[in-house]
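3.2 Worked example (two chains)
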Amino acid sequence: MELRGCTRDYGAVRAVDRLDLSVHEGEFLALLGPSGCGKTTTLNLIAGFVPPTAGRILIDGADVTDRPAHLRGLGVVFQSYALFPHLSVRENVAFGLRERGLPAADIERRVGEALELVRLDRAGRQRPAELSGGMQQRVALARALVYRPRVLLLDEPLAALDKKLREEMRDELRAIQRSVAITTLFVTHDQAEALGLSDRIAVMNKGRIEQLGAPRAIYEHPATRFVADFIGASTVLRGRAVAADRVATAGVVLRVTGGRALTPGQDIDLAIRPERVRVASGPGDNVLDARVESLVYQGAQTEVTARLDDGQRVLVFVTEPAPVRLAVGQAVRLHLPFDAFMVLAGPL
């Protein structure tokens, strides 16, 4: 599936801005970003629910830009599931096939296969109201898969579930996608879902793709401050390069290996993940003096916000048991490993 220069305007608002994207056969690709970034509009363009203001959409090499939604050969699962409450599970899954006039024997066989795939073959006679949220989500998935679509489009299908069920369904969804090897585009604002499910992630911001790559690459090597802030927690420090691998910030000079040589005098943004920062027992290289500003206990770890002498803040995840007992207002030393820094594109 390919988008070439796709734009979608709503009056003076540009929801999608000259977007280029290729989704490989059998790939699970996540469109990730905050509300209003254009990810759902992008999915609606692919599905054929809204036309692009400009650009072309190709599926299997065929231009489908002007083709109606029901002729694109796509399966769509919405956040709301959109199940018919008066129909049974089996009737919900069969509905579209009956509308298309398939023979009754074919419908029965395909519905049975779809329900078995999502492990609901024993729930065929039940109504949606009798099912849990996770089971309703699987019915919606079976209804999309029963068409044997070329591409599966998922619009935040797990958002309505509670945390534990969402995590369970995330694993099931990935297993089902792998078993049928179907090309899948998954829209989400949840970083954990995108990281845990996807082969690749397209991080969207203001209608454009800010970064596209494998989950680990995007997490460990964000290209911009927006990506560093949005994918997981991170601290971004302002500094100035004083050598090819040295940055002055907060009154000290830090050694960094951010993947590219620095130009002395250049303003630099340094990102570091909170799990890489350590509470130090004494002075040393890449150690900063700070004061604990807040503590948030989270069970296996405590989220610590520490304020540096120049007012910048560093986020630290301290795992239990903590190396030292911490309290708000306490002076601490923080060790920031030189190989944990990510040099971001452009100054603040």
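3.2.1 Second chain
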Amino acid sequence: MKKKVSKSVRKKPGVIIVMLMICFLAFIGGNRAYATTTDNNTTNTNTVNDNKNTTKNEDSNVNGNLGPLQFSLNTDKNKGGLSASLQMLLVLTIISLAPSILIMVTSFTRIIIVLHFVRSALGTQTTPPNQILIGLALFLTLFIMSPIFTKVNTEAIQPLSQGKITQQEAYDKGVAPLRTFMLKQIHEKDLKLFMDIAQIKKVDNVDQIPITVIIPSFIIGELKKAFIIGFLIYIPFIVIDMVVASTLMSMGMMMLPPTMISMPFKILLFIIADGWNLIIGELVKTFY
């Protein structure tokens, strides 16, 4: 038994050493295989990512977009953008001022004031309504101003749209018919008033008078003429009110409002005299 034990003990160190060497070699081989696999996976991942980035770049180049929030700004090398901007600004300015221009430099002011005087003289309060009076005044204005608007379109707007004249020439030719119309309606006293305010002493002809002086002179003249016409319209209706009031007082009916009795008589008088035809016809003739 002693001999067998001693032999097995002697053989164990060599066996252990061989087994350790085998394990060490196996460990080194496994690490190399793991490193190789990891490198291959990393390389494949980088290749896939590069392919995706290349595809995205190609798609962005094809679509012409370099990013989600991108805009381009052209500097307009031909320098034509400024003129277009000025034209747009001019159109927007004219559109915003169109109501004031229509009211103040045409026959609209005189017509609408006279129509309101007619309604007040009849005592009907809101009949005809404001919409009817404004619409009637607007169409009468278009009727009176149509030759002037046609002339402005023929001499200024059409040549400008066709490029035959400049903007300054179009402005001068477009304002000229309106100046002529307003000067025919202006009183010399009103024109002299604003010329004195503007410190304009003397002019050789009316073409030298600025438009900023003509427009307020024209408006004051229109207000004056409209009030004179309104006063003349009031006279027959005031007579009816006086007759009705004196009759009611003589009958002792002082608590009865005279306007309640006089209004039907005023409407009857207006209908018999064909008031709308008479007033509108004479009003339009004041501009010729």
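3.3 Remarks
The CA atoms of residues 185 and 286 lie 9 Å apart.
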